[in-house]
Design goal:
The chain folds into two domains: 2-148, no CATH class; 150-217. It has three helices and five strands; from the N terminus they run αβββαββα. The protein has helices spanning 2-23, 97-106, 151-216, and strands spanning 26-41, 62-72, 77-82, 117-122, 134-140. A five-stranded antiparallel sheet has the order 3-2-1-4-5. The longest helix is centred in the last third of the chain and has 66 residues, at 151-216. 14% of the residues are buried.
Length: 217
Amino acid sequence: MRYVKWTIITVLVLLVFGFFHYTLPQRDIVRIVNTYEERQDLNGWTRMFWSSPDDNSDTLANRDVQFIQAIQANGKTMVYRNEDTGWGWPPYFKFDTANLYAEANDAISSKDAPEWYAIRHYGWRNEFLSIFPNAVGLKRVDGPDVRLIPYGNIVMLTLLALFVGFLYRVWAQFRERTIDPLLEDAGETWDAVDERADAARDKARGMWGRLRDRMRR
């Protein structure tokens, strides 16, 4: 049972970590090299990795999606999709896809005269599953080595930790005041029943012994 317990805990921790890693914003410093628009199929379970910015998106089998191609400082390529999130999840409330597309086009630079930008995004890039992180913001930076501190993530995770600590404290007080007394009463009741059962068993043994002695006489 100990292995089952730790397996369940490990799975839950991985699920929580994956959820926050996908949802929380990240920033990449890149050089934008191209933008394009391509029709994408939205069939299958990978549909969850595409945005649904309006009511009609859930019923479409495919739609045109804007993409931003970029090169990282280490030479690796990265491709971002550019979709509105609307009022859905994650709650980025992005409605400026067209504006961001124009900014990305204006930010295109060559290898000989690079311009570096910090792209704020969420999601994952997986070539095998053809999923792309969604770009939600674009900001020019001085160079590829600039250090960006994720203040938003720090604040959000700190508030989440405080909230979890508050819930744990509430649960501990509830258990101390409600559950533990009930368990103690149940234990005492069970002990009393056990004692009465022992007494009844001893009494039955005594009666049987006396009856046996009389029968011998």
